[in-house]
Amino acid sequence: MVRAIAFDLDDTLLDTSGILVPQASSLSFQILIDAGLNMTLEECQNRRVKLIKSISHKDVFLKLATEHGTSETLNALNKAIAAFYEPHIPNALPLLPGARENLDYLKSKYKLYLVTAGAEKTQRSKAKALGVENYFDQIFVTNSLIKQRKADTFREIIHINQIQTTELLCIGNSLLSEIHDALEIGAKACYFEFGEERGLISTEKNKQPHYHIRSHHELISTCHL
């Protein structure tokens, strides 16, 4: 029986890939191009979409700068990474359809947590702009820029609530991040297939998410909540 739920933010509650990523990634690539990256903006974006299936955006910028840039490009790398992970966040952002209704329903039944990865200030600004802060017992931001994993946060949630690992349900769109980490520690995992592809579903039965949905309208019934 599920007693606590950990939600991802980007491409799970917010259409980050559609609203924020295009502009932020273009700005980052332009910084690298201005510093000698021998690629067009279109070429950069095409490579990005393919590469993020297996690596982070930070590593995408590093890979392209190393393979197609100069020493000047590498010197501009930190500026480009900061431009992507710390973009301007609007005062208000829309939740994905059905997300608020789900949060309203789940808030009275379960302990809810927001477990998101990225830059602390940026991720908290997104939560504020979405108007979801009060739904969650606690908001955790794992610093993906220094390779922090969500698994440690999931373990902390389990410890805080004194529950079994199988009583935590983790919901998110990244097979490489929260889904992998949830399965690694023995928690329940719900793969929310939305946004840009982040990894592939394993062919091994014990490495597959327990649930697979494509919209918030499927969440409650599919996960038996």
Cα-based radius of gyration, to the nearest Å: 18 Å
Characterize the overall form.
globular
- At the fourth CATH level, what is the homologous superfamily of the largest domain? HAD superfamily/HAD-like
Q: Indicate the CATH class of the largest domain.
A: Alpha Beta
What is the helix tally? 11
Main pleated sheet:
6 strands, parallel
Q: What structural class do the secondary elements suggest?
A: alpha/beta
Give the uncertain stretches in residue-range form.
none
Order of helical and strand elements: EHHHHHHHEHEHEHEEH
Overall mean pLDDT stands at 95
Helix percentage = 40-55%
Terminal Cα separation, in Å? 9 Å
Number of domain modules: 2
**How are strands sequenced across the largest beta sheet?**
3-2-1-4-5-6
The count of DSSP E runs of length 2 or more, i.e. the number of strands, is 6
CATH names the topology of the largest domain as Rossmann fold
Measured by DSSP, the beta-strand proportion falls in 5-15%
Gross CATH architecture of the largest domain: 3-Layer(aba) Sandwich
Question: Which short descriptors sum up this protein?
Answer:
225 residues; 6 strands; alpha/beta; 6-stranded parallel sheet; Rossmann fold
Describe the protein:
This protein is of the alpha/beta class and 225 residues long. It folds into two domains: 4-15 and 92-222, Rossmann fold (3-Layer(aba) Sandwich), CATH 3.40.50.1000; 21-85, no CATH class. It is 44% helix and 13% strand. It contains eleven helices and six strands. It has a six-stranded parallel beta sheet, with helices on both faces. The radius of gyration is 18 Å and the shape is globular. The N and C termini lie close together (9 Å). The relative contact order is 0.18.
